[in-house]
Write a sequence for this structure.
């Protein structure tokens, strides 16, 4: 079944190419927007949470103080990958509806194509993050571990996204429910604050944050990129394999439920 | 059903196929509705296609005809793999490309060339095959330099031309075409047909839905007729189309009995001394039964009821047929064919038979003038006595107003 992904790769790339070419075509600044947006968010959040709420970021891996902006952006890159793929999968399948009624092709192709483009965006953000850490001289071999963690995050998000998108094709409310849920989940993930802050707080809250799978990926990234501590090999492998299994399950469910997609949308 | 000679392989084998749709009127489409109202109690289903069995031979052009809503498009979508049959099976040999709409999937912001790539991929062609035919597509579409402009700047004609060019160059084994043959100008249409013929010559199968019966008759090897989702008949184009038209005509007559081409005298003052007055005019068949329309090639009659107040010797009844677009098509009279009615008195009926009706499809008006035996004194003149349509039996519309009994020979 997963071999279909390989045999129809040209189609996935064709959709990715379409989305890539048309994403910012009518705007003057073009792809710069893909960086302006997250950087603006970063500046606003960093200002509000470090100056107003006085959240302290943990110690940098190089032992030279801390940087809340760098800490926040590490989490933000990971979170944006997750929420971006989820939201995009749903809107992309919906907007491919007219086409799916007229031409027969696998419905996951436009979804995965859009996700590929989203990943380019994440890579750009990652580039900015790297520059930030180079500037802070916070460098270590543990950076390499960011790759398997992000790949795991992408696969996990795509697996969930595929299932949500096919349910959303049937029940249009799902998209709005997910938007609300993502808003809540954002605060239940240690992006804005270090995970140590929930310790000793409300027991339930602390558990929810720690059981939230996105937290695991975000924490992995914090370790590898910010604190420069290598997470145990088993954790990294677990994040990657967990992501892959989620993707595989999501892909399977999507295929099962999308057989009548031409009538659903 | 068609019986295939042994050894002919099938491109599409449709066995007892049915497609059931849920009525959308009561679809629980949002979670709230599901929660509040529970599952739909009894979904109202209807069968868009039911128990259709068809065998479409390889390398043939196969037509589907029927009314709107007869299930043609649903069947096409099942052949194209867009819908799954609810029951039965469809086996296709080779790659199917369904042209339900031309240019479906074009992105307005991308150039024609970029869209060729995208559309080719969607239709399932490998990248290198697309690159191999791209120039051919550009050439065929006749877009020239416009191919590098975003398609949103295209005229609708350019848009469909590109759509058609892409689809037919994808070299599908089975090409499914839904009512998209009438694209572009005359020249481009001819190119399209030439290309479809070339596709057929190369052993590819074309399945086409169209309401252009004349077009289909010329293009197809076989035609199937669907009605209310059920197969009525399938076979040679001419016979299938004739059967279909016969049903269409009789359905219309049944639906609108009052449409019968009959008109009674409304008592308006008319020219002429009224010693004879035409009381009614009607279009009738050979048995004298009023009919709503005449068919090209089938004898029909114009029947006039007249009343002669006083005995009139050898009146000349002149009937003029005028086409709806204005021109007078012909004028017939009993004197011209040397028929003498003798002395006419009281209520009589005059019947004019138009043998093997040579009138081509269209609407015709009948004007009636009655003169005395010398042809110099007007007795009655009824303009627009009655109007009737002429329909085609074969789907052939023809050019002009009449088909003349001609014979060709070559020496």
């Amino acid at each position: 079944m997963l071999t279909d992904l390989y045999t129809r790769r040209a189609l996935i790339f064709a959709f990715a190419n379409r989305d890539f070419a048309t994403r910012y075509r009518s705007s003057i600044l073009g792809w710069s927007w893909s960086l302006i947006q997250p950087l603006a968010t970063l500046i606003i959040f960093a200002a509000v949470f470090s100056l107003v709420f006085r959240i302290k970021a943990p110690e940098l891996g190089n032992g030279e103080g801390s940087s809340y902006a760098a800490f926040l952006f590490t989490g933000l890159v990971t979170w944006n990958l997750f929420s971006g793929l989820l939201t995009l999968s749903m809107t992309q399948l919906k907007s491919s509806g007219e086409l799916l009624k007229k031409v027969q092709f696998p419905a996951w192709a436009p979804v995965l194509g859009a996700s590929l483009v989203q990943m380019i965006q994440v890579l750009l953000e990652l580039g900015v993050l790297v520059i930030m850490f180079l500037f802070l001289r916070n460098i270590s071999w543990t950076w390499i571990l960011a790759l398997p963690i992000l790949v795991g995050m992408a696969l996990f998000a795509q697996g969930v996204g595929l299932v949500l998108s096919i349910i959303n094709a049937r029940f249009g409310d799902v998209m709005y429910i997910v938007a609300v849920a993502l808003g809540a989940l954002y605060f239940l993930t240690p992006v804005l604050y270090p995970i140590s802050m929930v310790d000793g707080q409300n027991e339930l809250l602390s558990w929810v944050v720690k059981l939230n799978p996105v937290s695991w990926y975000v924490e992995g990234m914090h370790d590898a990129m910010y604190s420069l501590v290598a997470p145990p090999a088993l954790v990294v492998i677990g994040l990657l394999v967990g992501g892959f299994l989620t993707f595989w399950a999501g892909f399977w469910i999507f295929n099962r439920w999308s057989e009548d997609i031409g009538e659903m949308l | 059903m068609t019986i295939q000679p042994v050894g002919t392989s099938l491109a599409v084998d449709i066995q007892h196929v049915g497609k059931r749709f849920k009525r959308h009127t009561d679809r629980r489409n949002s979670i709230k509705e599901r929660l509040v109202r529970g599952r739909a109690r009894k979904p109202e289903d209807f069968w868009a296609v039911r128990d259709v069995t068809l065998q479409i031979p390889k390398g043939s052009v196969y037509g589907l005809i029927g009314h709107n809503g007869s299930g043609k498009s649903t069947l096409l979508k099942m052949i194209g793999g867009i819908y799954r049959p609810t029951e039965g099976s469809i086996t296709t040999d080779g790659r199917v490309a369904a042209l339900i709409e031309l240019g479906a999937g074009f992105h307005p912001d991308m150039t024609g060339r970029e869209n060729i790539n995208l559309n080719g991929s969607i239709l399932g062609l490998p990248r290198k095959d697309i690159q191999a035919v791209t120039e051919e597509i550009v050439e065929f579409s006749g877009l020239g330099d416009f191919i590098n402009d975003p398609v949103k700047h295209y005229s609708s004609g350019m848009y469909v031309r590109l759509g058609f060019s892409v689809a037919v160059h994808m070299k599908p084994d089975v090409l499914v075409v839904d009512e998209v043959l009438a694209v572009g100008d005359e020249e481009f249409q001819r190119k399209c047909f030439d290309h479809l013929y070339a596709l057929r010559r190369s052993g590819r199968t074309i399945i086409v839905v169209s309401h252009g019966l004349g077009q289909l008759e010329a293009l197809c090897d076989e035609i199937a007729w669907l009605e209310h989702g059920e197969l009525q008949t399938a076979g040679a184009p001419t016979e299938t189309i004739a059967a279909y038209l016969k049903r269409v005509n009789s359905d219309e007559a049944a639906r609108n009995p009052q449409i019968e081409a009959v008109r009674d005298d409304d008592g308006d003052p008319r020219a002429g001394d009224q010693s004879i007055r035409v009381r009614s005019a009607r279009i009738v068949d050979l048995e004298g039964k009023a009919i709503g329309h005449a068919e090209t090639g089938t004898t029909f009659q114009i029947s006039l009821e007249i009343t002669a107040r006083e005995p009139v010797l050898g009146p000349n009844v002149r009937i003029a047929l005028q086409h709806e677009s204005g021109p007078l098509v012909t004028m017939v009279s009993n004197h011209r064919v040397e028929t003498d009615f003798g002395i006419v008195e009281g209520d009589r009926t005059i019947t004019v038979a138009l043998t093997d009706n040579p009138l081509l499809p269209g609407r015709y008006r009948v004007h009636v003038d009655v003169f005395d035996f010398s042809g110099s004194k007007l007795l009655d003149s009824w303009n627009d006595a009655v109007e009737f349509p002429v329909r085609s039996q074969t789907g052939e519309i023809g050019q002009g107003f009449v088909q003349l009994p001609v014979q060709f020979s070559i020496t």
About this structure: The interface with chain A takes residues 21, 29-32, 34, 77, 80-84, 96, 98, 100-101, 104-105, 107, 109-110, 114, 117-118, 120-124, 126-127 of chain B (CB under 8 Å). Chain B has eight helices and 18 strands.
